[in-house]
Recover the amino acids of this structure.
């Protein structure tokens, strides 16, 4: 098939379309319904209907953007099941109020989560952990055993604006990070903006993951030119061992980037041989910057290569076979498919057209396999069985279905409106399921009852089980879904209570007789026991100026028997799950009497579950 490439001069036209697409049309109520045949609606309704008491087939883990959360949905019902707070305090689960989670948040009360990444074994989701990026140079691990955030790593040295994470490798050796906003490194160094091209740096990093515990630590960092590193995907199968990162602003421009960074015909995808990076660090190569070893590709060649890709690529997605690397230039009408074998051949033959700060630039014509005319504004690609690929089109506000190998576009379905990411069932693994695909749209204009200026995002469920894609359902999701992943529900085995003998907390208290107050100078420790329907002790007396640590154990062993501990006027609300112990610490700097009470409805006598903190004036 002949490929069509959009003339670069039409970038302005696309930019206009980007703006125009923000004014999506409003249809009168009922009109859309009439447009789809009544029978189609009945079929769609049946496909998404999960009867009361029945369970969904898949979990969807959706990024919560600048809410700092991860949202969990059931597929196909699209019902919101749970919110996992990660980078933001969340009183509903007491996150960010107890000592451990407060320490983990490290004084930041927001994060910007874009890319959830489920742990993998041999390229398939294994249901153990979920890693997510935060723009504030951090990465977090959620344990899928209890759906809780267990570790936040960072801010990591030299990484600024970590958009290009947290993509894991096929055996979860690494989760990745990368700089979107280049800065002079180490952090804390200032350089005039005029020196952007030479003194500002992009950095990508591999975060090592312990196989057993999931504990994250810095593996390696690579210093790169000041491009804006955007998305990434790890190679798999034949391309296992490689990592691909898109970037825009090959111009190294500053100022009005929408103009200044769109001058050149091509930007780059950085291809990184991460095993070579790992080896270089093990051999002690790299310069210490910001307290960590950073590989300079000029001094350590053979680790990074640049693949030219159509204007301002956004998503890069590796096909299930690992053979094809799909790079989507968001200012184009095509998506570009690279051939991994050809990339390797070009590297071997030194088939370069130049370099950027000593990093070889591979010859585009030598590594490109196809330019697929998917439509305007391609962003991200997911995969299905039988070599089908699905690409989101922001400008066209649609999803294109096309075939790997023949590069034919076979179907399109409109999205309402302006799709960003898309997520297919296990659609970025080595064995995609097909069945369902969710379009994660940026605009929902007019598709729901008005809730004022802050409109919900729209996520649309699409049936991809047949030749033609069919829209099944509109759901409205919390701000701000970027990427999401959909995993078979039976891969996860969440616990519902913490078993008593697994609770190793040093202040755990399992018997109301052991509850009470001990004093050590001005430090008071309260051991509290929560069980239906009493908080023991029912009152605590301390002195103004004391530091008070309260350790709360919920001794229930029954599913869903959570208790809360809300302390008025001291800004505390801790929620404790069955069998769990949590601590919080306050400085008793306000004298008076302060009620505490169970915030989580637990029994008929939930209202009675209360007590008093008495702070005696000095
Ligand atoms: S992004 S709409 Cu932050 Cu993943 Cu592409
Ligand atoms: Cu315990 Cu409500």
């Amino acid at each position: 098939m002949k490929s069509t490439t959009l003339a670069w001069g039409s970038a302005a036209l696309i930019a206009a379309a980007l703006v125009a697409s923000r004014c999506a049309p409003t249809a009168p109520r009922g009109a859309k319904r009439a447009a789809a045949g009544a029978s189609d609606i009945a079929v769609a309704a049946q496909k998404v209907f999960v009867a009361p008491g029945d369970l969904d087939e898949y979990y969807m883990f959706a990024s919560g953007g600048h809410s700092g959360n991860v949202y969990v949905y059931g597929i196909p019902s699209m019902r919101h099941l749970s919110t996992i707070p990660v980078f933001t305090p969340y009183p509903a689960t007491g996150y960010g109020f107890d000592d451990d989670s407060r320490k983990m948040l490290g004084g930041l009360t927001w994060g910007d989560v874009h890319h959830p990444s489920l742990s993998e074994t041999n390229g398939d989701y294994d249901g153990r952990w979920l890693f997510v990026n935060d723009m504030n140079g951090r990465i977090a691990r959620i344990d899928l055993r209890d759906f809780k955030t267990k570790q936040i790593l960072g801010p990591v040295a030299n990484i600024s604006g970590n958009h290009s994470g947290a993509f894991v490798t096929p055996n979860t050796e690494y989760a990745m990070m990368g700089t979107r906003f280049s800065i002079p490194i180490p952090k804390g160094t200032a350089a005039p903006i005029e020196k952007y091209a030479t003194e500002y740096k992009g950095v990508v990093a591999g975060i090592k993951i312990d196989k057993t515990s999931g504990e994250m630590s810095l593996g390696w960092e690579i210093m790169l030119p000041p491009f804006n590193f955007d998305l990434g995907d790890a190679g798999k199968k034949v391309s296992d061992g490689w990592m691909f990162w898109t970037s825009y602003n090959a111009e190294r421009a500053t100022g009005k980037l929408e103009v200044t960074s769109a001058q050149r015909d091509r930007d780059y995808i950085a291809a990184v041989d991460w095993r070579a990076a790992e080896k270089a660090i093990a051999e002690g190569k790299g310069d210490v910057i910001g307290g960590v070893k950073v590989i300079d590709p000029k001094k350590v060649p053979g680790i990074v290569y640049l693949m030219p890709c159509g204007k301002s690529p956004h998503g890069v997605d590796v096909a299930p076979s690992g053979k094809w690397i799909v790079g989507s230039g968001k200012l184009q009408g095509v998506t570009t498919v690279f051939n991994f074998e050809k990339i390797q051949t070009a590297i071997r033959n030194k088939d370069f057209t130049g370099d950027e700060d000593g990093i070889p630039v591979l010859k585009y014509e030598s590594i490109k396999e196809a330019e697929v005319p998917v439509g305007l504004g391609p962003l991200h690609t997911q995969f299905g069985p039988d070599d089908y690929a699905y690409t989101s089109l922001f400008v066209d506000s649609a999803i294109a279905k096309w075939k790997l190998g023949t590069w034919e576009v076979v179907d399109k379905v409109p999205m309402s409106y302006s799709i960003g990411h898309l997520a297919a069932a296990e659609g970025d693994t080595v064995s995609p399921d097909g069945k369902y695909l969710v379009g994660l749209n940026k605009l929902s204009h007019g598709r729901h009852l008005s809730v004022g200026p802050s409109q919900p995002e729209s996520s649309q469920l699409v049936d991809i089980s047949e030749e033609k894609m069919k829209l099944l359902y509109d759901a409205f999701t919390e701000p701000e879904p970027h990427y999401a992943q959909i995993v078979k529900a039976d891969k996860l085995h969440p616990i519902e209570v913490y078993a008593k003998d697994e609770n190793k907390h040093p202040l755990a208290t399992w018997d109301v007789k052991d509850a009470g107050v001990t004093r050590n100078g001005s430090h008071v420790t309260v051991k509290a026991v929560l069980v239906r329907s009493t908080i023991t002790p029912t009152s605590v007396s301390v002195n103004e100026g004391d530091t008070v640590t309260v350790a709360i154990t919920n001794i229930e062993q029954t599913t869903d028997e959570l208790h809360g501990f809300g302390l008025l006027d001291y800004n505390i609300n801790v929620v404790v799950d069955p069998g769990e112990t949590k601590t919080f610490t306050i400085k008793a700097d306000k004298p008076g009497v302060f009620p505490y009470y169970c915030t989580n409805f637990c029994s008929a006598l939930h209202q009675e579950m209360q007590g008093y903190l008495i702070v005696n004036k000095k």
In short: Residues 114-115, 163, 231, 314, 379-380, 420-421, 482-483 surround RUQ (ligand 1) (CB under 6 Å).
